[in-house]
Design brief:
Strands 1, 2, 3, 4, 5 and 6 form a 6-stranded antiparallel beta sheet that branches. The protein starts with 13 loop residues before the first strand and ends in a 6-residue tail after the last helix. The chain is of the alpha+beta class. The chain is globular. The chain has 2 helices and 6 strands.
Length: 143
């Protein structure tokens, strides 16, 4: 799957934003790669919190099993980062998200994340319930 699709922030069904902190920068003054991953996590968590708070699944959790990031431009402090998230694939126990980060209206990174529903007792994958599939389908992103 090619990540670069030149979608705008508004094209993503789930959108959030947060501040860039000075501690997100490295010694040359730009936001470091670990902070990019943390911003993407913030976007995923924001989406998943909405789903899991309205459709709790006792004894189960979502875990990330894959993360690909394509860095497109640097970011600097101070500022804000906008994170767009959409679902691009749903399997039996997993789903794939496409994410993009924007700063000052510019695309700075794109990512693909694969998450799996895990049974917390067995630590193994578990099928996605129909209600979760429906919630994920409502957040589909056409790429």
């Amino acid at each position: 799957m090619t990540l670069h699709t030149a979608l705008t922030f508004d094209a993503y069904p789930h959108r959030t934003e947060t501040d860039i902190r000075h501690s997100d920068t490295d010694r040359i003054g730009h936001v470091n790669n670990v902070a990019f991953a943390a911003f993407l996590e913030f976007g995923r968590a924001s989406l998943l919190h909405g789903i899991s708070s309205s459709l709790p699944i006792p004894g189960h959790a979502f875990v990330i099993v894959r993360l690909e990031i394509d860095y497109r431009a640097e970011m600097r402090w101070p500022g804000r980062v906008q994170i767009g998230v959409g679902i691009v694939g749903i399997g039996r126990s997993s789903f794939t998200m496409k994410q993009a980060m924007f700063n000052n209206g510019n695309l700075v990174a794109e990512a693909k994340s694969v998450l799996v529903m895990m049974n917390e007792a067995t630590r193994r994958s578990a099928p996605l319930p129909a209600e979760i599939v429906a919630a994920l389908q409502a957040l589909s992103l056409s790429v």
